[in-house]
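Researcher: Let's run the pair from yesterday's discussion. Sequence first, then tokens, for each.
Model: Starting with the first of the pair.
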Amino acid sequence: MTELNIPDDDGESSSDPDAENRHLKSTVAALRLALENGEEERTAVQQKIRAGYEGKIAELQATIVALRAALEDSRYEGRAAVEHAVANTADEITQLHLTAQALRDAIESLQHEHRQEIQRLNAAAQSKSSQLQAAIHALREQLELAAFKAQAEKQETLALAAGQIQELKTTCQALRQALDRGRGAL
């Protein structure tokens, strides 16, 4: 800061108007000089401050530009990541739809094959059942025929046996009579 050099008052200033005038002029000159020096200092300080602020402003502007670029990069990367995720999700959804459709088709095919197999097994069972019923019917007829033949043979055998018994009885009676006659003749 500039020091103010004001000439000392010798005490003459009150009596001598020229001295007072000179004194005032020198004071004004000193004040003017001090004012000019003060303005120069103020301008220098302002320039120094302005240079500091301008440096900080430039630094902040560079930081803002870098942050803006980073933000734009981040937005771009974010958008790209979202688009990639959406594309992957869409692909996965498509794959899941295709898988679900393939599974539905496979299930329907298996159900159709299962129905056909059941129909085939039912037809085979019906055929086997018909064959078994025919065999049962044939066996029943054979059994009835065999039972009838057995009954007929039994009756025939019984009749034959009864006839033979009757013959034997008749023969025995004839022999008894002959024996009785032969005893009676003796």
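Model: Moving on to the second of the pair.
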Amino acid sequence: MTIKIRKGNKKEKIQYKSTKRILTSKDIKEADRFDDALNKEIADIEKILIKKNMLTSRARKSEMLNVWYLIGSRINKFLKNNKISPEEEGIFWEQLYGRSGLINKTVPSLSIGKTRNDFRIASILATYPIRKLKRIKFWALWREVLTYRAFQDGRVMNWVLNKIEKMNPKTRNEARPFLKSVSLRMKKIDTSVLNDKELVKKLNDTAYK
């Protein structure tokens, strides 16, 4: 899949990026079709959020967790019907910024890594049952949790969530020292070779209690 890129949303600064070295006219047409479909999807998401009173015409959001859960669910459905290659994922997630002045008013001035891309985080968020997400009600805290690659093992994630629930942090800043400590402890460990008991022992060795 070739992805159409706008620099500052100006027509004269349109580019096409792909893993291919040479793009054909067919590739360009496919990129234009994909881009049009994506713009329509983002516009539809805006309308749904406004209709549900979760987003205002002044870009004010309410129920942030539900807002981003809906965004992630819709994007996941879109990607199911419009597949992109793993090599082009980074370009795709970055290019979602700036398509909606309501979902996000500003385009980040610097390239955003995939682990801290709001749309990518929302996509991951939407793979969880909403009842599980509401164990931690705050989008900002979920956003922080999902940026850590060390939590990709579901068992680690559940352990972390259980700890956070007991700590009852009100902000991501209160949870951040704990999350960083667990990430530092686990980031070089292949958890797939550990049984549940071994994994919990290593997690309990986390410096931050």
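Researcher: Give me one sentence on the second I can quote.
Model: The chain has two domains: 1-121, 135-209.
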